[in-house]
Structure formats: structure tokens, C-alpha cells
Amino acid sequence: MSTVRRRPHFSTVMLIVGLLFLYLPMAVLVVYSFNSSRLVTVWAGFSTQWYGALFQDQQILSAVWTSLKIAFFAASMAVCLGTVAAFVMTRFGHFRGKTALSSMVTAPLVMPEVITGLSLLLLFVQMAQLTGWPADRGEGTIWIAHTTFCSAYVAVVVAARLRELDSSIEEAAMDLGSPPLKTFFFVTLPIIAPALAAGWLLAFTLSLDDLVIASFVSGPGANTLPMVVFSSVRMGVSPKINALATLIILTVSLATFVAWYMMRRNERRQIIQRQEDAA
């Protein structure tokens, strides 16, 4: 009895090709981060020396701390500004200039980063000439610039959640005597909290990854991690960069796994709770 070999479906083949295209370069990078040779394309044996050299490089460590600090504060401020903009776009009635405001809020989404960085640079230069601030461009100007374009992404995410929110819940709370401010903090805010968290994480990632805008608005005393990596790569890829990229991949993978595990556990709890309620 002859067995018929089933050919893989076209969708399965394309899925495998797509995954290889996305993750094979990362796998190669991780492997070569353990290369003992200084040449990143020549394998000379297994070694972890570049991880030790990475933690002794004060320039990279300082850039990592600067990027994390700027990304944290930029994402936090972007959530505040983006949430306010989202409420104006979704909850306020029609007023003169609402369309123009919505267009201006979402403009950074489609604006080239070169144009955004150049315009912010000119703004800071003019402000320094007129008011004397900022005297020197540095972490503060990068924070303002990142907050500017990250707020647009947060506004879009939060506005989408607000449009799906049933306003009758808020109306019921106010009918029962809850003031508007208390209704926002105790009713609306918990409901849109997942959107706020998603917007914060998106803004944090965008700020941490930005190179073009930070290059325009930074000064000699402030170098973010993408700027340091780009400068070192222009002089030749160092094995320390491979080690740094491997640590970033490991951190992101662990964070993704933890988020997936928590979501899966919450889903199981909800299923068990529903079964107990049904019984």
C-alpha cells in the first residue's frame, strides 16, 4: 500500500519563509555575539569576552541610561497630552477648528522624521535667540521632541478606545451623583487603562528607537543609544554591538513572554469563573 505524500500548503511555505526572513538575521547576530574574533564575520571560537567589554564601556552604558530616562519621561508626558487630545477629538461636540485640530494632532504620524527634526531644531534655535532658553541642547530638548511626536500615537490609540466605550456607563455614574472628575478617575480611567498602557509602551518604544529626530535636537552632552550605535557602526561593526543587541533581544523576549503568560492566566481565571457562575 503506497502512502501519498501531502505537499505543504502555499500559506505554510510563505509563513516559514516570512519567519526565516524576520528572525534568521537575529539568530545570526546572537550567534556572532559569542564570537571570540574581533571581526564580526569571521568565526574564531566561542567566547563571552564581548559581554564583559560591553559592561566596561562607559559610553554605551551612559547612552543606555540616557535613552531609558528620556523614553520613560517622554512616554509618560505623551500619555497625558495624548489622552487630553483624544478626549477633545472624541467627546467634545463639533466646534470651529475641530477638524484642523484633529489633523494637527495626527500629522506627526505621516510627517517624515527629517522634517520633524529640522522644524524642532529651528524652533529651539529661535527660542534660544528670543528668550535665552534652551541655552544648550541636550536631554531636555530630546525629551520635548520625543513627547511631541509620541503624543500623536498615544492620541490615536486612546481615541480608538474611547470611541468603543459605552458612554451610558459614565452617564449612569453621573446620574447617581458622581461628579464628572470623579467619574473620569473611577469609571472612565479604569476602562481605558489598557489603551493607556498600550500607548505608553508604544511611546516608550518609539522614543527608545528614535535616531533621526534625536540627532537634530541633541547637543554634545547628550547621546542616546541609537546615536552611539549608529556612530560606532559607521566606523565598523564592533562585536560589542552584537552583544548589546543580543541583550536587547533577550529583554524584549522575556517581557513579551511575561505579558503573554499573564494574559493567558487571566483568560484561564475568567473561564474558570464563568464555569463556576454557570454551575
UniProtKB/TrEMBL annotation:
It is found in: Cell membrane. Coiled coil: none annotated. It comes from the Bacteria. Keywords: Cell membrane, Membrane, Transmembrane, Transmembrane helix, Transport. It is a multi-pass membrane protein. Residues 64-259 form the ABC transmembrane type-1 domain. Pfam families: BPD_transp_1. The chain crosses the membrane at residues 12-34, 70-88, 109-128, 140-162, 183-203, 241-263. Belongs to the binding-protein-dependent transport system permease family. CysTW subfamily. This is ABC transporter permease subunit. It comes from Halomonas colorata.
